[in-house]
Specification:
This protein is about 40% helix and about 25% strand. With about 325 residues, the chain is α/β, with parallel strands linked by helices. The chain folds into 2 domains: about 160 residues, 2-enoyl-CoA Hydratase, Chain A, domain 1 (Alpha-Beta Complex); about 110 residues, no CATH class. Helix 3 links the parallel strand 2 and strand 3.
Length: about 325
């Protein structure tokens, strides 16, 4: 809980000579959240509470989210300090990796990982999922579309004639709306541009070739959106990676363990298992955190009432189901 973590936050601040901001978007199965624009005003409040300070440390845990929100957060934090570092206890994937590129220094534990920053495009013109309701659409992976054309030009298929490549494009357009393909192209160029600009805010001496190499590793060379980069790989590609000493590692791990417990990150949200033998139960599920020692704790919570239903089937068989009634969903604040 937040009160238990305040002293740990102050220990990190003392060790790093900075003010600490903590941002967590949970990945508990069935209760996932992501980096999004709804935290901007609250984050500004925390940064005001931390000011004035020359250095800000962001302890970040997230599997990703909105690309432009990550870009905005990185730039917002930089408005409040001269030096910005990110501390990664475990996961900072996709948009969280993009956010981390804006830091002067990235502190990664032994188990910390970054991930590819290739986004997926979601929109009403995306391909429809066969047999599903009309509003269910297939997310378009930017690199999956690029991979389709790479395959056409590869040694396996060996299409080099412009007419053949045009046919490949038209075939794809039969299944994917051309406007959706345009969104994919725009997203791909945007993510590379944003990554370079974030790197350029603090790594001004980097050559264009090195920045291209970093962006290529994070966008293309990984081969899969599920690929992860440990701190050795991240440092090898040219990112400003540091590792914590043993004392700092223990503090970071203690923070992460407490957060993991509060958000039940290792537990699948299974209403039937949660109910057990009870017929009904109210649950409060913390799904995201935005905290600082000075600014208090913002928690995104979902409150539900679980009600067990027993349905009679043929031949005397019964089936148990759980109804969910939403009581509250949103951000709550706890003072420091």
């Amino acid at each position: 809980m937040y009160k238990n973590r305040i002293d740990l936050y102050r220990q990190i601040e003392a060790a790093r000579g900075s003010k600490l901001l903590v941002y967590v978007t949970g990945d508990r199965q069935g209760m996932e959240t992501q980096i999004a624009s709804d935290v901007m005003d609250m984050m500004a409040d925390h940064l005001d509470a931390l000011s004035p300070t020359k250095k800000i440390s962001l302890l970040l845990y997230s599997c990703g989210g909105q690309t432009l929100s990550a870009w905005t957060i990185a730039n917002l934090i930089r408005q409040f300090c001269d030096e910005f570092e990110v501390i990664i206890p475990a996961k900072a994937h996709s948009a969280a990796t993009l956010l981390s590129l804006g830091a002067d220094r990235i502190i990664m534990t032994k188990q910390a990982t970054l991930g590819p920053i290739d986004p997926s495009v979601n929109g009403p013109l995306n391909p429809h999922v066969p047999g599903a309701p009309d509003n269910i659409r297939v997310p378009l992976s930017v690199e999956a579309v690029a991979g389709y054309f790479d395959l056409a030009r590869s040694d396996t298929v060996k299409l080099t004639n412009e007419n053949d490549l045009a046919s490949v494009f038209l075939k794809l357009a039969d299944f994917v709306h051309p406007v959706a393909l345009g969104d994919v192209y725009r997203a791909r160029t945007q993510i590379v541009r944003l990554a370079k600009r974030l790197l350029g805010t603090h790594m001004k001496m980097l050559s264009e070739e090195i920045m291209e190499g970093i962006c290529s590793e994070l966008c293309v060379a990984s081969g899969s959106h599920d690929y992860t980069f440990n701190r050795r790989e991240a440092k090898k590609m040219g990112l400003p990676i540091d590792k914590p000493d043993e004392d700092l590692y223990k503090i970071i791990k203690s923070v992460y363990d407490d957060v993991r417990k509060e958000l039940a990150l290792n537990d699948v949200f299974n209403p039937l298992a949660i109910l057990g033998l009870q017929s009904s139960l109210k649950t409060i599920n913390t799904r995201s955190l935005l905290e600082s020692a000075s600014g208090g704790s913002n928690r995104f919570v979902t409150e539900l009432e679980l009600v067990k239903k027993v349905l009679k089937k043929d031949k005397g068989m019964v089936e148990e189901q759980v109804g969910l009634r939403l009581i509250f969903e949103g951000w709550r604040y706890e003072k420091a």
